[in-house]
Design the sequence.
C-alpha cells in the first residue's frame, strides 16, 4: 500500500537550527511560498508571500514586527497554536467576563445579545450607562466600540474587553468615568466575529473571515470578510459596498486588491451587502438605535488611526475634525501611531466606517499592535494605551456629538487609483 500523498508533510520551515514539518493540509499553500522549490520555506520566502497577500501591510505606513508575523505564520503552516494564545480570552471567557461586570455593576451595566452567528453563538455587548436598567439611555448620545471583526486579530478583542472592565469598575471609583456613563450611552462589543475568533483559536490562527458556509456560491468555500460586507441598503450608498463597474461573481474587475468577489479569498465581500448576521446585528445597533453618534472599531495591526473614506481617496468633508480627533487619540498612544485616511493604506469597499460616516456617524478604525497576535509581554501595554485613546474618542463624541451631514452622493464614482 502506498502512502496517501495528501497526508505527507512535503515541506519544512526553519526554526532556529531546527527543521519542522509543515502540516499536510498546508501543502498547497506551502508550494506557493517555496519560490526556489527546495522544500524549505525560508523566512524571506514567507515574508515575501505575506507582503504579496497583503497580510503584511505597506511598510511605509504601518509599524510591523515582521519577525513576529512570520513566526506566527509558521505556526499556521504547522497547524499549531502560538504560545501566546494563553494570554487571550476565549469567546466563552469573554461572555462570562461581560456577564460578571453586569452582575457586579448592575446600576451602570447590562449584557445584551445583539444577534446570533451561523454556529449559534451570541454576539455580546456590554451596555454601559447610568439608568441602563430603566431603559432611560436613548436620549443620550451613543458611542459603539467594536473589535475582532477579523478573527485572527486577537488584540483587537482584548482592548475593548479591557475598556469594558475599566469603565464598569470606574463607575464607582472614578468621577470622570462616572461622568461619561451619566452623559453617554456606551456599547462595547469586544467580539464581532465569535465563530471566526474561536476557529482562529482552535483550528487556524490565520483565519480572518466569519464561518458561514457559502452554498449560494456553488463552492465549498467558507466565510465572508465582515469588514467588506457593510451596506445600509440605501441606493445612494450602493457604491460604498460595490463600486461602479465591479460586477458580482467576477474577480477581474474587483475594486482595488483588498475587496474580492472570490469566495475563497480572505477579503470576500459576500453575496450581497450586509448578507452576514454579524454585520446585520451591528448595523441594527449603530444605525437602528437612533442615538449613536460615534463608532470606533478595532483591528490589528500596524499602529494606525484610520478615518474615512476607505472606498475613495477624496477627502471627507469634515477632514479637519477627523484629523484633530485622530491626533488627540495618537497623543494618548504616545504618538506611536500614524493618522491616515483609510484608502491611503489600501482602498476597500464595504468597510464599516464608510457606512457609518455616510449616515452622519463619526467613525474611525484603530489598527493596534505590530502583529496579529502580540505576545503576553506586550498585550497589557497595548490594552492600556488603546483604552486611553478610546476614552479620548468617547469624550470627543460626548462633548460635540455631531458630525456634519454627509454629502448627498457617495464618493465612489470619483475614486481614482493612486
Ligand atoms: Zn482587520
Sequence:
Amino acid at each position: 500500500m502506498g502512502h496517501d500523498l495528501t497526508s505527507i508533510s512535503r515541506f519544512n520551515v526553519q526554526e532556529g537550527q531546527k527543521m519542522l514539518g509543515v502540516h499536510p493540509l498546508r501543502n498547497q499553500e506551502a508550494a506557493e511560498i517555496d519560490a526556489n522549490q527546495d522544500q524549505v520555506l525560508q523566512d524571506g520566502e514567507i515574508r515575501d508571500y505575506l507582503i504579496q497577500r497583503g497580510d503584511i501591510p505597506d511598510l511605509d505606513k504601518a509599524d510591523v514586527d515582521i519577525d513576529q508575523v512570520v513566526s506566527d505564520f509558521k505556526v499556521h503552516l504547522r497547524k499549531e497554536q502560538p504560545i501566546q494564545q494563553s494570554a487571550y480570552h476565549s469567546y466563552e471567557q469573554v461572555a462570562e467576563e461581560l456577564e460578571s461586570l453586569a452582575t457586579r455593576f448592575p446600576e451602570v451595566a447590562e449584557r445584551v445579545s445583539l444577534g446570533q452567528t451561523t454556529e449559534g453563538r451570541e454576539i455580546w455587548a456590554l451596555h454601559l450607562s447610568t439608568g441602563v436598567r430603566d431603559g432611560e439611555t436613548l436620549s443620550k448620545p451613543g458611542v459603539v466600540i467594536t473589535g475582532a471583526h477579523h478573527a485572527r486579530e486577537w488584540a483587537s478583542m482584548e482592548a475593548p474587553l479591557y475598556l469594558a472592565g475599566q469603565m464598569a469598575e470606574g463607575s464607582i471609583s472614578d468621577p470622570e468615568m462616572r461622568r461619561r456613563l451619566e452623559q453617554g450611552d456606551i456599547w462595547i462589543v469586544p467580539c464581532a466575529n465569535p465563530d471566526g475568533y474561536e476557529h482562529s483559536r482552535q483550528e487556524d490562527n490565520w483565519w480572518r473571515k466569519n464561518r458561514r458556509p457559502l452554498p449560494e456560491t456553488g463552492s465549498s468555500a467558507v466565510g465572508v470578510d465582515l469588514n467588506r460586507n457593510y451596506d445600509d441598503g440605501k441606493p445612494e450608498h450602493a457604491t460604498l459596498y460595490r463600486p461602479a463597474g465591479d460586477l458580482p461573481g467576477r474577480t477581474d474587475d474587483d475594486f482595488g486588491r483588498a475587496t474580492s468577489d472570490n469566495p475563497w479569498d480572505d477579503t470576500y465581500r459576500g453575496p450581497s451587502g450586509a448578507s452576514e448576521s454579524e454585520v446585520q446585528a451591528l448595523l441594527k445597533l449603530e444605525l437602528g438605535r437612533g442615538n449613536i453618534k460615534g463608532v470606533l472599531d478595532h483591528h490589528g495591526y500596524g499602529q494606525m488611526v484610520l478615518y474615512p473614506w476607505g472606498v475613495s481617496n477624496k477627502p471627507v468633508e469634515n477632514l479637519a475634525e477627523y484629523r484633530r480627533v485622530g491626533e488627540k487619540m495618537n497623543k494618548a498612544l504616545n504618538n506611536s501611531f500614524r493618522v491616515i485616511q483609510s484608502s491611503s493604506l489600501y482602498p476597500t469597499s464595504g468597510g464599516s466606517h464608510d457606512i457609518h460616516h455616510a449616515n452622519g456617524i463619526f467613525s474611525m478604525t484603530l489598527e493596534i499592535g505590530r502583529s496579529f497576535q502580540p505576545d503576553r509581554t506586550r498585550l497589557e501595554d497595548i490594552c492600556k494605551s488603546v483604552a486611553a485613546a478610546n476614552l479620548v474618542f468617547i469624550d470627543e463624541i460626548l462633548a460635540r456629538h455631531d458630525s456634519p451631514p454627509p454629502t448627498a452622493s457617495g464618493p465612489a464614482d470619483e475614486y481614482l487609483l493612486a
About this structure: The longest strand covers residues 109-116. The CA atoms of residues 205 and 326 lie 30 Å apart. The chain has a mean pLDDT of 93. Residues 5-80 form one domain.
